[in-house]
């Protein structure tokens, strides 16, 4: 029985929530392995929309055990708000488990995120402002606060004081209000009793589940091009949303993984700052944004839009060892006579098939387009590959060739049922 990683192959918002939910109906566990409430994963069931930030998409499927892995950064207040909201909509959240090793986003790191962005001025990253970067920085700096610290009030008070002191100096220097460590400690301790029964050893739980032959799905937040190591640094998030991150973020070894699915849109979007070679900064891009409903689930920001970039997805295939691509939003491309696809870049007049060596090169990359014939039909009702118009089938075939990976499923609408599964995995 498989262990399956689901991750973003582009710059995020590819439809990982829908893909996880769709696959997750037949799984036993869904484990989030990175990021935090910077993510916004949408699932649509029977026309009802659920926006998930911290909670794994598996929470919407009966019988699935959803787990927040050690690689996630947890804003506890937000997590409980989300649990309460889901519970009020009839979703059973009682099975949710959280790693005792996961780091907490204390309120001061939300403020640090804002202070950092302000200090960057015109070079700002356009973060979600959720405190993600400062919390991962504290983790690496070994001054982070973990879920398990909530059960040692004295130790917690010392840790908060040590972590907050240098930040208060920065807040004071930039004219922001400083925080009282005792108040922050009390705020965190207020959640201890509620979180205690949810604590778990994720690595043990997941490995034992795999030993039993259970199916485990690892759900990534963000995406390959936002990876701290492999993305468009510094315009990235502060975690590893790539396949390696799934292993460290849940405590499993590479030999246990059966499939790695990269979720990719049939075109490309990006939120926040940073290079984006196929971006359509014109009325064509605006029309695509409206047609695709490309507005952020977390911040409501308009997403930047562009054509499919096969260099990016080929790169995602390599970085993650993708076995499959889950292609989403093909329905949005109906109605274009010709659909440009970026097959390579031109950098300083030289053709590049692969991601350039440095970001200076990537920033100058000019897409080399191949124009593929489009289709007019509404494909949202198609449920088999054969039902798709011939040109849509040819588009898929060309994307597979360029991405060096098979396209396992095709999304033709936001609903759980609006998926063409070509190769069942679970
Ligand atoms: P995630 O962050 O990767 O989970 O993606 P988001 O939820 O942020 O954004 C994806 C958006 O596309 C959501 O509004 C989904 O409901 C929607 N969506 C996902 N797959 C499809 C699809 O195949 N067709 C259409 N039209 N919408 C889709
Ligand atoms: P999902 O899981 C798209 C982007 C932000 C910003 C950069 C850093 O829904 O695909 P951060 O707050 O993480 O420090 O911001 O990363 N970003 C996302 N873009 N989808 C996401 O999540 C994102 N999470 C972060 O816009 O450019
Ligand atoms: Mg999203």
UniProtKB/TrEMBL annotation:
It holds the Pfam family Adenylsucc_synt. Binds 1 Mg(2+) ion per subunit. Substrate binds at residues 297-303. Its cofactor is Mg(2+). The keyword Magnesium applies. GTP binds at residues 12-18, 40-42, 303, 329-331, 411-413. Homodimer. One of its GO terms (biological process) is IMP metabolic process. The active site is at 13 (proton acceptor), 41 (proton donor), 139. GO terms for molecular function: adenylosuccinate synthase activity; GTP binding; magnesium ion binding. This is Adenylosuccinate synthetase. The gene is purA. One of its GO terms (cellular component) is cytoplasm. It comes from the Bacteria. Plays an important role in the de novo pathway of purine nucleotide biosynthesis. Catalyzes the first committed step in the biosynthesis of AMP from IMP. Mg(2+) binds at residues 13, 40. It catalyses: IMP + L-aspartate + GTP = N(6)-(1,2-dicarboxyethyl)-AMP + GDP + phosphate + 2 H(+). It comes from Schaalia cardiffensis F0333. The lineage of its organism: Bacteria, Bacillati, Actinomycetota, Actinomycetes, Actinomycetales. Belongs to the adenylosuccinate synthetase family. It is an enzyme of class 6 (ligase). Pathway: Purine metabolism; AMP biosynthesis via de novo pathway; AMP from IMP: step 1/2. Its EC number is 6.3.4.4.
């Amino acid at each position: 029985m498989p262990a399956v990683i689901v991750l973003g192959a582009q710059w995020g918002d590819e439809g990982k929530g829908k893909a996880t939910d769709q696959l997750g109906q037949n799984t036993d566990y869904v484990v989030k392995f990175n990021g935090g409430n910077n993510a916004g994963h949408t699932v649509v069931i029977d026309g009802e929309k659920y926006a998930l930030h911290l909670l794994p998409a598996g929470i919407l499927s009966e019988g699935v055990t959803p787990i927040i892995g050690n690689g996630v950064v947890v804003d506890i207040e937000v997590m409980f708000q989300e649990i309460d909201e889901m519970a009020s909509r009839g979703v059973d959240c009682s099975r949710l488990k959280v790693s005792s090793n996961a780091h907490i986003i204390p309120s001061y790191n939300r403020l640090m995120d804002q202070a950092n962005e302000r200090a960057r001025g015109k070079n700002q990253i356009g973060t979600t402002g959720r405190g993600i970067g400062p919390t991962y920085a504290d983790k690496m700096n070994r001054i982070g606060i973990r879920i398990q610290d909530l059960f040692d009030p004295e130790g917690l008070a010392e840790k908060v004081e040590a972590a907050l002191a240098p930040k208060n100096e920065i807040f004071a220097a930039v004219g922001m209000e400083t925080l009282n460590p005792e108040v922050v400690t009390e705020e965190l301790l207020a959640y201890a009793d509620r979180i205690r029964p949810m604590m778990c050893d994720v690595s043990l739980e997941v490995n034992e589940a795999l030993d039993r032959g259970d199916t485990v799905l690892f759900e990534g937040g963000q995406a390959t091009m936002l990876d701290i190591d492999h993305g468009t640094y510094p315009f990235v998030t502060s975690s590893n949303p790539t396949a390696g991150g799934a292993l460290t973020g849940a405590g499993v070894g590479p030999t246990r993984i059966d499939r790695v699915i990269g979720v990719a849109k049939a075109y490309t979007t990006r939120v926040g700052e940073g290079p984006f070679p196929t971006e359509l900064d014109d009325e064509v891009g605006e029309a695509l944004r409206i047609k695709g409903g490309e507005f952020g689930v977390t911040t409501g920001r308009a997403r930047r839009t562009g054509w499919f970039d096969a260099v990016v997805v080929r790169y995602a295939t390599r970085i993650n060892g993708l076995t499959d691509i889950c292609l989403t939003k093909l329905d949005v491309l109906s109605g274009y006579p010709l659909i440009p696809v970026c097959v390579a870049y031109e950098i300083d007049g030289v053709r590049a098939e692969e991601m350039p060596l440095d970001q200076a090169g990537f920033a100058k990359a000019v897409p080399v387009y191949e124009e593929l014939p489009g289709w007019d039909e509404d494909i949202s009702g198609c449920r088999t590959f054969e039902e798709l118009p011939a040109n849509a089938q040819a588009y898929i075939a060309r994307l597979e060739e360029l991405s060096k990976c098979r396209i396992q499923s095709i999304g033709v609408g936001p609903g759980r049922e609006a998926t063409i599964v070509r190769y069942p995995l679970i």
